[in-house]
Design goal:
Layout lengths: L1 E6 L9 H15 L3 E8 L5 H7 L5 E6 L13 H4 L15 E5 L17 E5 L3 H11 L3 H24 L2 E4 L2 H10 L4 E4 L17 E6 L5 H18 L5 E7 L17 E5 L5 H6 L2 E4 L9 H8 L4 E3 L1 H4 L11 E2 L3 H13 L1 H18 L2 H21 L1
Parallel strand pairs: 1-2, 1-4, 2-3, 4-5, 5-6, 6-7, 8-9, 8-11, 9-10, 11-12, 12-13
Length: 389
């Protein structure tokens, strides 16, 4: 079996949520024996070393330029997709059993005359219309807010166009899958959980009082989450002996001066660290205080795999299938959030049990390889039945 994977960003290194999901799936497809060709239309060229790593799993890589200009804002297609219009002209010189689109951003590939639409599968990382509306709520910049709202409206329109060309959908969020299935029961849609990225799950020693948040520091919804925690929860936590709040993530060289208005006592910030391993290892628990967002917050799943129990807002764990008080602690008010953190600090046995329960759930329900394999087999059965009829 041969598959063409089309990405809006080079999938390696897997240093943020979208890449974690895409890179894990590429490795799973390779393990299943698929021949993989990759087309990427991203903003930054990958390094030679990163390309060499990817070549361990794929046979061919084609890169095309992402080009954006201000006039793209006037186009009916979202700027995130319009800036990747070069995909319409990529030379697809081979036949593929399937073409896997990694998100709505690569929509222009569907206008490539060499693509057979009957073979196209869309991986839905987010409901982009909802996601961009959430970004608009998170940002305080009026220009950015207007841009996000425009993209939200355009993605809502684009999703209707996609439905005319694609009938195979793989959702990362169980919540978004169920909503889509209710509205479009005839589509061949499925909840495909994100791939488990660690062969062996880790476990905190629960020796420190370090509260960890890891996420892209350039994203307004992550900034909003950190700001909410620093404003409402962190001051309460400062009375806890040996407490520290550890923040880590890629800033894309953007200024972090938005942190200056908060009390940064006992706050440690790791800007674009080369590795997250020691940060996870030093943590007691992970917090995901997201106030706005869509899809699955992979930071929650990654934290659990890396050995940290999670306290989250309702937004931060939606679509994961995790259950409050069984796999994860959920708190939406500052007082409840503080209570949950202190509860975990005061009871390491509870923290350990919560971690073990959440890891067991992920091992049991997040079998990316088997779900993907069964889905492809079901599509092949459908095709074979049509040929017989």
């Amino acid at each position: 079996m041969k598959i063409l994977v089309v990405c809006s960003d080079f999938p390696y290194p897997a240093d943020h949520g979208g890449r974690v999901d895409t890179w894990g799936r590429i490795k799973v497809l390779a393990e299943l024996g698929w021949k993989i060709h990759l087309v990427v239309c991203g903003k930054q060229l990958p390094s030679h070393g990163d390309i060499e790593v990817v070549y361990h799993y794929v046979e061919k890589i084609k890169l095309c330029d992402r080009r954006s200009k201000l006039t793209d804002l006037l186009h009916s297609i979202p700027m995130q997709a319009q800036s990747r219009k070069e995909l319409k002209h990529v030379n697809i010189d081979e036949d593929y059993d399937y073409v896997l689109l990694e998100g709505d951003y690569v929509y222009p590939i569907l206008k490539n005359p060499l693509i057979k639409h009957a073979n196209v599968i869309l991986r839905v990382h987010n409901d982009e219309a909802i996601y961009f509306k959430a970004l608009a709520r998170s940002t305080k910049n009026i220009i950015h807010k207007l841009y996000y709202l425009m993209e939200s409206y355009k993605f809502s329109t684009l999703q209707k166009k996609m439905l005319q060309k694609v009938d195979k959908y793989l959702f990362i969020s169980n919540k978004e899958f169920e909503e889509f299935q209710r509205r479009h029961p005839s589509a061949k849609s499925l909840f495909l959980p994100p791939p488990v990225t660690k062969e062996t799950f880790l476990a905190s020693t629960f020796q420190t009082k370090h509260v960890v948040f890891i996420g892209s520091l350039f994203m307004p919804n992550n900034r909003e989450a950190i700001e909410w925690y620093l404003e409402h929860v962190h001051p309460l936590m400062l009375q806890e002996p040996d407490y520290k709040f550890i923040v880590a993530g890629n800033s894309r060289k953007q200024s972090l001066n938005w942190l200056q208005s908060f009390d940064m006592t006992n706050v440690v910030v790791h800007d674009t660290p080369e590795s997250l391993d020691d940060i996870y290892k030093s943590g007691y628990l992970f917090v995901n205080p997201m106030q706005n967002g869509a899809g699955v917050k992979l930071k929650t799943i990654e934290a659990i795999q890396n050995g940290l129990p999670v306290i989250s807002t309702s937004i931060g764990y939606e679509g994961t299938g995790l259950v409050h008080n069984e796999h994860i602690m959920v708190a939406d008010s500052p007082e409840e959030f503080y209570f949950r953190v202190k509860q975990m600090f005061d009871n390491p046995i509870l923290a350990k049990d919560l971690l073990e329960s959440s890891q067991h759930y992920i091992r049991t329900h997040y079998n990316h390889k088997e779900v993907l394999k069964s889905y492809i087999n079901s599509l092949n059965t459908h095709v074979q039945l049509e040929q017989v009829l």
